[in-house]
Amino acid sequence: MSQSLSEKVRWTTADLDLLAADEWKRYEIIDGELFVTRAPHFRHQSIILNICAELRDWSDKTQLGEAFPTPGIIFSDADNVIPDAIWISVERIERFTDEAGHFIGAPELIVEVLSPGATNERRDREAKLKLYSSQGVEEYWIVNREHQQIEVYRRENAVLKRTATYNAQDRITSTILPGFECLVQRFFRQIGSTK
User: Fold this and answer.
1) β-strands 159-167, 171-173: how paired?
2) Sheet strand arrangement including 159-167
3) CA pair distance 69, 44, nearest whole angstrom
4) Helix residue spans in the chain (DSSP H)
5) Measured at the alpha carbon of residue 129, what is the angle toward residues 27 and 5, in degrees to the nearest 5?
6) What pLDDT sits at residue 7?
7) What's the start-to-end Cα distance of the chain, in Å?
8) What is the mean pLDDT of each run of 10 residues along the chain (195 residues)?
9) What is the dihedral of CA 101, 106, 108, 114, to 10 degrees?
10) Closest Cα to residue 53, out of 102, 42, 174, 45?
């Protein structure tokens, strides 16, 4: 019996256990579709650390929550992702953490840094935007390393909608992080000239 085009394979969290462990690949499932990406450029990682450092400094002052780089979030068997960074309130940490240390509910803020390629961009701009919107994420930042820009999506009428685009010289703020303000170029700072 052959499989028709309308019968697509639906991946689950349990299927990930069957894949060979490879520290250079990231496996994510969104609406039953498997996304496999290789380890990103080190500047991609640097941006994640810079964003987390700024969010962590603000969190240390306010004690309202924590920032985490590349946490696992298991929304369901068919939706299992590893965003680049999150900020989550103390209340949600206590409510949305399983015994294995994965988050099982939406943090307030998710950050994705775009990786090159149409498939990667589609995943972050379409599949993840739809998933994060349906799961109750309050704010979603899509970071463009090449253009040094951040697109901000905020929850409006139960849907994440693009509300602002910040450039390197702008100061980013957040309605969910009272008093947080940061010059966007600080997220893109680097030592040396390697792009």
Assistant:
1) unpaired
2) 65-69, 85-89, 109-113, 139-144, 149-156, 159-167
3) 12
4) 13-16, 42-62, 90-95, 118-122, 128-135
5) 65
6) 64
7) 50
8) 57 76 73 78 86 97 96 92 96 94 96 89 93 97 95 96 97 96 94 63
9) 90
10) 45
Counting Cβ atoms within 10 Å, is residue 28 exposed (0-12), middle (13-18) or buried (19+)?
buried
Please tell me whether residue 165 adopts helix, strand or coil conformation.
Answer: strand
Contact 72/107 with Cβ under 8 angstroms? no
Amino acid of residue 165: T
Please, are residues 87 and 108 in contact by the beta-carbon 8 Å criterion? yes
Q: Beta strand pairing status for 109-113 and 85-89?
A: antiparallel
Taking the whole predicted model, whether its pTM rises above 0.85 is answered as yes
Joined tokens for residue 45? 């990682």
Q: Exposure of 75 by Cβ count < 10 A (0-12 exposed, 13-18 middle, 19+ buried)?
A: buried
Q: What single string gives the DSSP state of each residue in 58-97?
A: HHHHH-SEEEEES--EEEETTEEE--SEEEEEHHHHHHSB
Q: How far is CA 173 from the centre of its chain?
A: 18
Write the burial class of residue 16 (CB in 10 Å: 0-12 exposed, 13-18 middle, 19+ buried): middle
